[in-house]
Design goal:
This protein is α/β, with parallel strands linked by helices. It contains 19 helices and 15 strands. It folds into two domains: 40-279, Aspartate Aminotransferase, domain 2, CATH 3.40.640; 283-433, Aspartate Aminotransferase, domain 1, CATH 3.90.1150.10. Strands 4-10-9-8-7-5-6 form a seven-stranded mixed β-sheet, with helices on both faces. Helix 7 (151-161) runs parallel beside helix 8, helix 13 runs parallel beside helix 16 and helix 14 (330-339) packs across helix 16. The longest helix has 23 residues, at 282-304. Bound molecules: D-serine (DSN).
Length: 439
């Protein structure tokens, strides 16, 4: 490999990361392992090209081949999702969402209504810390006490707040999203309905989650989560969207470029096209369904160990554990689990009494370990390991949030890093992951 000679430092770091990804149980629900073919498309001469504009309407010469790449990616997405319009250029999910707001909303006047980050929404669904909540007005909805969408409350809020766009789509919601109910509310108040399906795209393609296509106007998705493509994003407009606004596609194209971006990343576009072809193959249906079977098995084993799962379980690829009944903080649990080679997120839970930096829960999912071929028997093992780690962590006095931010944490962490229980589990995990190769 040329890189090992020209830049041995970076080469070594890449190899180290390759090993880390191979050794651990990668259970962050937004992560996955792309295929070799996707990575090959990423690492090509397509990275050398500029192609501002759209196929056949470019501001740069020399785009004969790139036009074909982008048109192919668009055609594959249109067919896979059954939508008339697709833009494959957003560099990632956040710019894709911003592009939709730029296309449809007047700054500081029109309102976006999305789920609050603290309840499993995303920064770009109108959070005040994000440009989407600073450049536009926003109103954030919350979940009900059962950890599920409360459509009565959402409807009342929509009638009161009159949003221009309602966002349905979440980063930490373990249940099926009822797009039809959202559509009824959006129609009642005349709002555009945007489904950000980033987390569940692969499940939708596999038929393991209902599709939003018959109900919403616009869909955004990243391409690297359950869809298993490269980092990137797409914006789609449905037939229903074009019926509401025949210019919707054109408005979104203009919002992406010249509104927000210059040139697309053409190597990324090619890799998205490859991922879409892979997702259209019958094996992907089996994959998507297995993600859900694995998550359900993991959830029921965790319940058997007395874990408190937000909403009581899962219908999709992810599980949110409220660790308060175990007396363990989510950040501390995530650190200890990583020592045991189990990689998850610390995460807030609905009605969390702790701040986001030091939240009460962890979020974990099955997309990446399912890509490795793991099935139900392995999920039961994983639940057992998680339980053993948490039982050990329970013996520690939890740092306060203030301690977690200062020197005290160094000592605490060094104890966790040397914990014999966690290290023993790390070895057991490694002997399992060694049997399930990454692509
Ligand atoms: N970072 C993604 C996630 O982990 O859910 C959302 O952008």
């Amino acid at each position: 490999m040329q890189l090992s000679k020209t830049d041995p430092q970076i080469y070594k770091l890449i190899k180290d990361e390759e090993k880390r990804q191979r050794d651990v149980l990668e259970m962050i629900p937004s992560e996955n392992y792309t295929s070799r073919a996707v990575m090959e498309a990423m690492a090509t001469v397509l990275t050398n090209k500029y192609s501002e504009g759209y196929p056949k309407k470019r501001y740069y010469q020399g785009n004969r081949v790139i036009d074909e790449v982008e048109s192919l990616a668009i055609a594959r997405a249109q067919k896979l999702f059954g939508v008339p319009y697709v833009n494959v250029q957003p560099h990632s999910g956040s710019p894709a969402n911003l592009a939709v707001y730029v296309a449809l909303c007047q700054p500081l006047r029109d309102k976006i209504m999305g789920l609050s980050l603290a309840f499993g929404g995303h920064l770009t669904h109108g959070q005040p810390q994000s440009a989407t909540g600073r450049f536009f007005k926003s109103t954030l909805y919350e979940l009900g006490e059962d950890g599920r969408l409360d459509f009565d409350a959402i409807e009342k809020q929509a009638i009161r707040e009159k949003p221009k766009i309602i966002v349905c789509g979440f980063t930490a919601y373990p249940r099926t999203v009822n797009f039809r109910q959202f559509a009824q509310i959006a129609d009642k108040v005349g709002a555009y309905l945007l489904a950000d399906i980033s987390h569940i795209t692969g499940l939708i393609v596999a038929g393991a989650h209902p599709s939003p296509v018959p109900y919403v106007h616009i869909i955004t998705t990243t391409t690297h989560k359950t869809l298993r493509g490269p980092r990137g994003a797409m914006i789609m407009v449905t037939a229903r969207g074009l019926k509401k606004d025949p210019d919707l596609g054109k408005k979104i194209d203009s919002a992406v470029i010249p509104g927000l971006q210059g040139g697309p990343h053409d190597n990324q576009t090619a890799a998205i096209a490859v991922a879409l072809k892979e997702a259209a193959a019958p094996a992907f249906v089996t994959y998507g369904k297995q993600i859900v079977k694995n998550a359900k098995t993991l959830a029921s084993s965790l319940l058997d160990f007395g874990f408190d799962l937000v909403s009581g379980g899962t219908d999709n690829h992810l599980i949110l554990i409220d660790l308060r009944n175990k007396g363990v903080n989510g950040s501390i649990a995530a650190i200890a689990l990583e020592v045991a080679n189990i990689v998850v997120n610390k995460n807030g839970v609905p009605f969390d009494t702790q701040p986001p930096f030091y939240p009460s829960g962890i979020r974990l999912g099955t997309p990446a370990i399912t890509t490795r071929g793991m099935k139900e028997p392995q999920m039961k093992k994983v639940a057992g390991w998680i339980n053993r780690v948490i039982e050990e962590v329970k013996k520690e006095k939890m740092p306060t949030e203030k301690e977690a931010r200062n020197e005290f944490m160094k000592d605490f962490k060094s104890r966790v890093y040397k914990n014999k229980n966690h290290l023993k589990i790390a070895t057991e995990v490694k002997s399992l992951t060694a049997r399930f190769p990454v692509p």
